[in-house]
């Protein structure tokens, strides 16, 4: 939400996802407009490499771990491979060495799809690799909702006092 309150409400998270969705749609429109110009082998490889390196190893480790705790390296791999900066570096290097091509749209389509459709972004070390609500966050949400409701009541009471 801001630099001092780094969390999102359901509403602000939905707005963030809508923004990602808008950019996903732009990427998909570009891909559909240039279907015949896309090198599909390159597209599939670029789309897949993000999860082959960044997600699948951590997901396997998570599922195989009795306590669901895994090494931080899996989180780092996920975050690096799911970064728009990394995608930009890959696209820039590809363009520099092989030339521009529409198959590079696989990178934003994958990353924006993860964010817009699944709500996935970077994974902090302190949460499970696979999505589940952290107990501390559940408590925070309850406390936040209670405080927000109390503030709304206080403002409503103040508005009634002004009208009277």
> Rough shape?
flat
Query: Fraction of residues in helices?
Result: over 70%
What is the structural class?
mainly alpha
Low-confidence stretches: none
Radius of gyration: 21 Å
Number of strands: 0
Number of helices: 7
Distance from first to last alpha carbon? 35 Å
Report the mean per-residue pLDDT as an integer: 92
- Characterize the largest beta sheet: strand count, sense, and whether it forms a barrel: none
Count of folded domains: 2
Describe this structure in words.
The protein has helices at 10-33, 40-54, 56-64, 72-81, 84-98, 106-118, 135-163. Helices cover 70% and strands 0% of the residues. It has 7 helices and no strands. The chain has 164 residues and is mainly alpha-helical. The mean pLDDT is 92. The protein has 2 domains: 10-130, no CATH class; 133-164.
Short description:
This protein is mainly α and 164 residues long. The chain contains seven helices and no strands.
SSE topology:
Elements: H1 10-33, H2 40-54, H3 56-64, H4 72-81, H5 84-98, H6 106-118, H7 135-163
Structure characteristics:
164 residues; mainly alpha; 70% helix
């Amino acid at each position: 939400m801001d630099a001092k309150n780094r969390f999102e409400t359901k509403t602000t998270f939905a707005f963030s996802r809508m923004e990602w969705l808008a950019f996903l749609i732009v990427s998909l429109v570009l891909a559909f407009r240039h279907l015949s110009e896309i090198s599909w082998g390159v597209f599939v490889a670029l789309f897949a490499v993000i999860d082959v390196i960044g997600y699948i190893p951590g997901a396997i480790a998570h599922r195989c771990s009795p306590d669901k705790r895994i090494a931080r390296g899996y989180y780092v791999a996920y975050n690096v491979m799911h970064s728009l900066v990394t995608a930009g570096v890959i696209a820039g290097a590809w363009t520099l060495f092989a030339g521009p091509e529409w198959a590079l749209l696989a990178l934003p389509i994958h990353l924006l799809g993860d964010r817009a459709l699944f709500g996935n972004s970077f994974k902090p070390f302190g949460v499970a690799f696979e999505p589940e609500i952290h107990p501390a966050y559940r408590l925070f949400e309850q406390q936040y909702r209670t405080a927000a409701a109390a503030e709304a009541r206080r403002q409503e009471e103040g508005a009634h006092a002004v009208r009277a």
